[in-house]
Amino acid sequence: MKDQLLAEAEQFITTCYKELHKNDDEINLRILQIKEKITEFGYYEHTFEELEHGAKMAWRNSNRCIGRLFWDSLTVRDKRNLNTESDIFEALEDHIQFATNNGQIRPTITIFKQESDQNRIRIWNHQLIRYAGYETEYGVIGDPASIALTKKCEELGWQGEGTPFDVLPLVIQINESSPKPFPLSKTHVLEVSIHHPELSWFEELQVKWYAVPLISDMCLEIGGIRYTAAPFNGWYMGTEIGARNLADDYRYNMLPKIAEQLNLDMNRNSSLWKDRALVELNIAVLHSYKNAGVSIVDHHTAAHQFKLFEQKEQAANRNLTGDWDWLIPPVSPATTHIFHRGYKDEIIKPNYFYQEKLY
Ligand code: HEM
Ligand SMILES: N/C(=N/c1cccc(CO[C@@H]2CCNC2)c1)c1cccs1
To answer: Rounded to two decimals, what is the model's pTM?
Structure first.
């Protein structure tokens, strides 16, 4: 195990320090230091500089991410010193406030203590901000994707209002102690009501979504060290909300309601009623976020930015890796260059990984 850790550390320091334009003496000195730490204690710790650049490299290596052009502009917050659930909760509220920035979203990651034999911090939420889901005898209220976590939160003593848009509490667990729920104050949660630039009936659907996507259940691995609590945010690509979260029939399932209002022929697939409803919903999402001054990107602009990323990686002499299945957008994929080429789905570290589900 120590040899494996040392090998990962050496590989990371070599790449990271070269990118930071450090010379061979600095690289060898740092590797020697780490070797001593691992030999004596069985682990080592990153400097802030290593942590910051490692988190950026991990974003750059995220094969499924179309937003990687901006990898070097990630804001990294070092919270490895925090030890209690309430201190961690406070740091998460600060992250939400800083990243939201009144709508001018700042891509940010907050990194908590690394995993060790004595220490494991986990955030049970998939995203820091997400709506609850309730199974009732009349069907599901809220987000079906949240049913399991909502049940867990209720077992832990949390009580939602029962609306389709109840923001779940943050659930923080340290080691094997009971996970603790912390309700988020609504003042921290910026939301956008969805309306359409031409179709005035759209607002009668009374649908909204939150501004900031903040993934909190993935593990950041840098140089053999695992950060099991390292929530990160960017801004949304419109299709994530308009073609998935609000459109999937196992999510908010809005397409039939929209098609009805559009008086489309829903009895024939070939009327393409689903496709027309989908496009209008995505137009409404992009229009509403822009109108509210909340950062968002359409899938055409995002694909163009990804093209620039491909060119930048080529110029930097780095091999581009990607996961085609995820990189193509769910709306009009073949209108983007991504659809018409291939990508090598090789896993390079540092990177962000799934970790075991705790509920
Ligand atoms: C800045 C704006 C960003 C945009 C528009 C963006 C866009 C996306 C989209 C559309 C996906 C696919 C999600 C899905 O289909 O469910 C994705 C995946 C991903 N993104 Fe980005 N991203 C951004 C920033 C970031 C940042 C800051 C990080 C980390 C530091 C990141 C890491 C990832 C990872 C790890 C995945 C794969 C998640 C999985 O495998 O479930 N992205 N991104
Ligand atoms: N726009 C985004 N979209 C996502 C990025 C990563 C993951 C996800 C959600 O993935 C879920 C798991 C599989 N599909 C939904 C969405 C970002 C979230 C955090 C930083 S950027």
So the answer is: 0.98
